[in-house]
Amino acid sequence: MDENNSETVVQSPKCEVCHEIPYKYKCSKCLLKYCSLTCLNEHKTKDNCSNKLYDPLEYISNKEMKNFDVKTEDKESNTKEVQTNHVVKRDYEYLLTMDRQLQLAKSDFKQKSRQLLPSGNPNVYNNRTVNKFLTDNGMELKFIMQRGCRCFLMPLGSSKNKRNKSRYDNKQKKFYWTIEWVVASNNGFEETNKTMIIDRCFEDMNIIDLIRYKWPKQEFKECFNLQHMEDTENVNWLNADLKAKILKQYLDQDKIHVYMKKYPNKMNNILDTKDAVKIQNLDTALLSGILSSNTCLEFPSLYVKIDKHKYVDSDELPIIEKKIIDDTGECINFGTTELKVYKSGEDIEKRDQQIIMEQERLEEEIRARKEKEEQEIKAQKIVQQNQLKQKRVAALKENPVVKKQKITHIQNSNIPDFHEKESSDSDDVTSDEEETKQTSTSNSLAAKLFG
Questions:
Q1: Model's pTM, two decimal places?
Q2: pLDDT tens per residue across span 21-66
Q3: Are both 155 and 287 inside the same structural domain?
Q4: Based on the structure, what is the number of domains in the chain?
Q5: Whether residues 217 and 152 fall in one domain
Q6: Which domain holds residue 228?
Q7: 275-278 and 337-342 as β-strands: parallel, antiparallel, unpaired?
Q8: What is the largest CA-CA distance in the chain?
Q9: Residue 274 in contact with residue 341, Cβ under 8 Å?
Q10: Quick check: 286 and 310 in contact, CB under 8 A?
């Protein structure tokens, strides 16, 4: 027989839980042999084993603890040595770990509190002076000016406040922004929406260069529908040159549009707006020029609309004229957000002025209508008073005795006569003969009443 055949193959013992696969591990406490995590979990449940050499939660009495001490005696030197048992070591390590966890918890709390409530001058943010003003509603709004852009500050500790990394780079002598990209793309079957927050977007770059260099490759491939061009063998198939060709074709075919929200100059609250303006000249307009004299919340948000198109590696495609947005605006959906897009900010100002003029006209009409109704009501009241007065005068002419009795009764009871003016008018109407008749009849009635 050959030497290879004579050698016996030594097989490792099998798992003591499943008894099928050779073991790979041993339990730390009972040294049971197992092969996988499932067998370990089964061993824990069946044998009630913690898989820990020193279980810090296991109770051990003092008598049992003394028995664990290891004693050695040296007869020649008559010395005794007592070694510390593993239970004392277990408790000591347990206390050390607890102390370490407390220290970590304190340091984490300090770090988190420093992020939520940063110390320092509250009137300075990112080396900029914080401006404050009160709205018509009595709300205090804070903002800073960065590169000509009015940036409203969100509350400290909010997700948008913590995510803002817009800073000035002293080494490159440039200002870089944190930009939120909201993308809505159509690949022919369905419309996908993505939101990306990208840091270090330099102000001297245009929108096309930002998309080319700052967007991640996976998001770029999905948004521009490049699954048919994917090369599994070449990892770097989507390089900067190919991105430049794709973006140029999308620009020539008018398939990519970028919008930015337009906030009003006078804000009464920090609520988000639904008005947006289309950014022109994406391949030449710099980010600094786009953001200057604009407003944002913490950091800018750009909305990118990519229409249905499939990239073709050809230079013979005709250039399509760009679509012009009407003065009335156009509604575009970005997932759950709906924007009313205009050509420029002047169109929004004209719309706001028309709305204000329409409101003033309606208020003027309502005011004139109210004044007219009040005048009509006053005229009706005057007519009613005149009619009532004429009726009273006619009644007094027919029966003047009743009027004189009423006057004497009011004078005796010291009740003010509210019809004094009317009585004076009626007295002018009566003649001298009627007055003598009235006195004689009143005397006869008094004689009958009082005897």
A1: 0.60
A2: 899 998 887 888 999 999 999 999 998 888 876 667 777 777 777 7
A3: yes
A4: 3
A5: yes
A6: 124-343
A7: parallel
A8: 171
A9: no
A10: no
